[in-house]
């Protein structure tokens, strides 16, 4: 790991402050590293993948001795030195030809890695498809625009490896999140290309299905009798077919630490049992316990005592005033004394 040093000037201090943790993190940068034994074809693939990631990308020209699955220390060193959370290592060998290793880091430590081998026979680069797109009048997408993702296949939701691949590619080509707030789906100019990932058919039952990577350019046409335009997809490349190789899954403790969110980004806490209707009026819900009305404390007066309760039936005689006893008096029998006069001061 790189040792921490005290900044000697204001420029170095500003550079270190940019790397400090923030409430809203910066856009993840991608670093393309050619391995100890690479090929020209992998170099062209990395160039075209880097064009989709621009301007948050950096590419090495010289080869580096990096063995991701054997020793990840060199990978972590390059990620920390170049301030890159995403690293792609290109290697070529007889056992694993034309292989790209996609790695993600958290706190400059390897989070997860996936090894994908490019099937050269069925893959085509952007330069090979340029003639078809140029004939159709399609230009490349503008730099910095975020793509739309399309995942086709049930394995992206059920299989753990393909769920990891889905998260990896979305994290790799996501771009600036602040740009998503400015350009939504209602802005046609803000959406120019689509990245499609499809799970192919496996060769045998024992092998994993290949991963088909496609990039399309959106083109709109005027539709007769409708306000919305007609949208068509034109493939611009690169067209890559990947074979899934070795996979390194993150540890549970690291996953728990990486998914922690600051309280400031969670917004206002949700108040329980309070709702708002479509008009904006607030409604509250109050939960009470069981109410025992028989034990309810009432005014202590003679007429409310239980022994004076009368529940006559249909065959019972009518109740007269004499049935209450001698103590019962009507309102006319009560003598009310006049109020006493106040003494006037002399």
From TrEMBL:
- The answer, when asked if Magnesium is one of the entry's keywords, is no
Compositional bias ranges of the Acidic residues kind = 312-325
**InterPro entries in the record:** Brix, Rpf2
Q: Known PROSITE patterns for this protein? A: BRIX
> What molecular function terms (GO) are annotated for this protein?
5S rRNA binding; 7S RNA binding
Query: Which family is annotated?
Result: Belongs to the RPF2 family.
One Pfam family matching this protein = Brix
Residue stretches making up the Brix domain: 28-253
GO CC annotation terms, alphabetical: nucleolus
Q: Where in the cell is it found?
A: Nucleus, Nucleolus
Give the record's keywords alphabetically.
Nucleus
Primary location recorded for the protein, binned into one broad class: nucleus
**Protein name, as recorded:** Ribosome production factor 2 homolog
Please provide the Gene Ontology terms (biological process) for this protein: assembly of large subunit precursor of preribosome; maturation of 5.8S rRNA from tricistronic rRNA transcript (SSU-rRNA, 5.8S rRNA, LSU-rRNA); maturation of LSU-rRNA from tricistronic rRNA transcript (SSU-rRNA, 5.8S rRNA, LSU-rRNA)
Q: Where is this region: Disordered?
A: 301-346
């Amino acid at each position: 790991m790189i040792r921490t040093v005290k900044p000697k000037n204001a420029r170095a201090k500003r550079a270190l402050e940019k790397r400090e943790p923030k409430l809203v993190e910066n856009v993840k940068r991608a670093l393309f590293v050619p391995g100890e034994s690479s090929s020209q074809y992998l170099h062209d693939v990395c160039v075209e993948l880097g064009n989709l990631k621009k301007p948050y990308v950096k590419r090495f020209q010289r080869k580096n001795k990096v063995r991701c699955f054997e020793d990840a220390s060199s990978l972590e060193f390059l990620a920390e030195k170049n301030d890159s959370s995403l690293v792609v290592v290109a290697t070529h060998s007889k056992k694993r030809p034309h292989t790209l290793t996609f790695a993600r880091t958290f706190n400059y430590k390897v989070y997860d890695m996936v090894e994908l081998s490019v099937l050269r026979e069925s893959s085509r680069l952007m330069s090979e498809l340029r003639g078809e797109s140029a004939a159709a009048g399609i230009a490349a997408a503008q730099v910095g625009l975020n793509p739309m993702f399309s995942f086709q296949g049930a394995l992206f939701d059920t299989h753990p490896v393909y769920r990891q691949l889905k998260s990896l590619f979305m994290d790799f080509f996501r771009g600036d999140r602040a740009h998503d707030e400015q350009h939504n789906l209602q802005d046609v100019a803000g959406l120019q290309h689509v990245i499609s990932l499809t799970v192919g058919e496996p060769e045998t039952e024992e092998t994993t299905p290949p991963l088909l990577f496609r990039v399309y350019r959106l083109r709109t046409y005027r539709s007769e009798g409708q306000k919305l335009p007609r949208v068509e997809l034109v493939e611009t490349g690169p067209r890559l077919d990947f074979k899934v190789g070795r996979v390194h899954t993150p540890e549970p403790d690291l996953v728990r630490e990486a998914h922690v969110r600051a309280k400031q980004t969670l917004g206002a806490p949700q108040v329980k049992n309070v709702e708002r209707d479509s008009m904006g009026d607030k409604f509250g819900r109050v939960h009470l316990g069981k109410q025992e009305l028989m034990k309810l404390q009432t005014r202590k007066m003679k007429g409310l005592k239980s022994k004076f309760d009368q529940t006559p039936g249909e065959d019972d005689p009518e109740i007269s005033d004499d049935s209450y006893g001698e103590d019962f008096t009507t309102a006319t029998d009560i003598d009310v004394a006049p109020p006493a006069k106040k003494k006037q001061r002399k």
